[in-house]
Design brief:
- Strands 1, 2, 3, 4, 5, 6, 7, 8 and 9 form a 9-stranded mixed beta sheet that branches.
- This protein is an alpha+beta fold.
């Protein structure tokens, strides 16, 4: 009986620790009008997910940012991070088939208000599909955050498109390399 109680308690602890919540679906091809998100985290550990879908175009540049403005030090969000994921074959977060499509980004102090603001931001080139932005942290006091996720279609030449996302990334990388080379030579 003791063993059963210990196993049950351990499972409950794991469930609570890994709790993730889909806050909202930002819809298809979110932009500055439809890609806004926010949540009050009020002194809790949180793992919030914002789903979105990229459709009708082979590739998109995606940019996401989240900000926590605070007036009291107690409203600081500890371990405030964000990361983009492909939702996998089932099209939903969870289920073991999610794939990270960008690095884990840790919030930093805002340049304009370093003592009262945290911000995290990142961008990625993504193919059409189902994705989610995962925002995590430990909220303090009356903390909360807000942000935007926007996408823009990218025109991609046919041969590069056939190479998939690695080809698209290579195209952008080679363009940057050629520009730097011109600046060094010219």
């Amino acid at each position: 009986m003791k063993r059963l109680l210990l196993v049950t308690a351990a499972l409950l602890a794991l469930t609570t620790a890994s709790h993730a919540l889909i806050i909202t679906d930002l819809g298809n091809n979110p932009n500055s009008a439809t890609g806004h998100f926010s949540n009050s985290v009020l002194g809790t550990t949180f793992d919030d997910q914002y789903t979105f879908h990229l459709v009708n175009f082979p590739a998109f540049i995606t940019f996401a940012s989240a900000t926590n403005d605070f007036t009291q030090a107690s409203d600081f969000i500890t371990n405030f991070t964000g990361q983009l994921f492909n939702s996998g074959a089932n099209g939903l977060p969870g289920g073991g088939d999610d794939v990270a499509v960008g690095p884990l980004v840790l919030a930093t102090a805002c340049p304009t208000n370093p003592l009262g603001c945290q911000v995290l931001a990142g961008s990625a080139i993504l193919a059409a599909g189902n994705y989610f932005l995962d925002v995590k942290g430990v909220g303090g006091g009356t903390s909360g955050y807000g942000g935007d996720l926007t996408t823009s279609p990218v025109a991609v030449p046919g041969p590069v498109l056939g190479a998939g996302i690695p080809g698209i990334l290579a195209m952008f990388g080679m363009g940057g390399w050629a520009w730097r080379r011109r600046k060094l030579v010219g």
